[in-house]
Amino acid sequence: MKGALFDLDGVIANTAIYHFAAWRNLVKKHFNAELPDSLEEKTKGVSREDSLRVILDYLHITVSDKEFQALSEEKNTAYVQALDHLTKADILPGISQLIHDLKKHHVKIALASASQNGPIILKKLGLFDEFDAIANPQLVHAGKPAPDIFLAAAKAIDVEPNDCVAIEDSVAGISAINEAGAISIAVGGLELSHAKKRFNNTNELTYEAIEATWQQYHH
Ligand code: B16
Ligand code: MG
Q1: Is the distance from the beta carbon of residue 124 to the nearest atom of ligand 1 less than 6 Å?
Q2: What are residue 98's phi and psi, to 5 degrees?
Q3: Ligand 1 in contact with 213 (CB < 6 A)?
Q4: What is the pLDDT of residues 204-216, one digit of tens each?
Q5: What CATH number belongs to 16-85?
Q6: Considering every ligand atom, which ligand is closest to the CA of 51?
Q7: Active site residues
């Protein structure tokens, strides 16, 4: 195991709730409509623009390009505001220890998040300097479930994807990892059963558990 590729929202910090709350408020304000809980999974790991497309499709609403852009920006402004109070205390259980242990074993660490806010969030969590690389989602051709962001993250740490494990909390993200050829590790429910290995909570993501998964599945 030479590299570990991390998703951000839902793996390192529980920012997924702020994303969906921002979408809900936006939809309420502009269209006086409610979004069902079931739509949250469909926007997880999915880029800002693709999330907005999923939501507008659900509402059967079409908007001009200009409105689309404005809605997307308004959601981001609200989301970034919600991140204001984020601190080290918002790192999900077990993640700081895992990062520490991976580094101790000379495993390189890269961020493979769809979020353009990745660097800001890592800084707020005090984790920015722990990462060897952050893949830029704006520079990849296609978002999750396409493998591009995981391929870019592996390349940024100069490790072959099949020498990496990658950790995700979204359906689209696990598909992206599998497509990239890294070993997929899920944190979350049964909807993530297409991962090589699934854990219910981040506190189960110990170095030992990750290493055991690596031993079992790499070739
Ligand atoms: P932003 P991840 C993803 O992050 C979120 O899961 C998804 O809900 C969000 O739409 C996407 O980032 C884009 O985020 O609007 O901040 O650029 O799970 O890939 O770390
Ligand atoms: Mg995620």
Answers
A1: no
A2: -60, -45
A3: no
A4: 999 999 999 999 9
A5: 1.10.150.240
A6: 1
A7: 7, 9
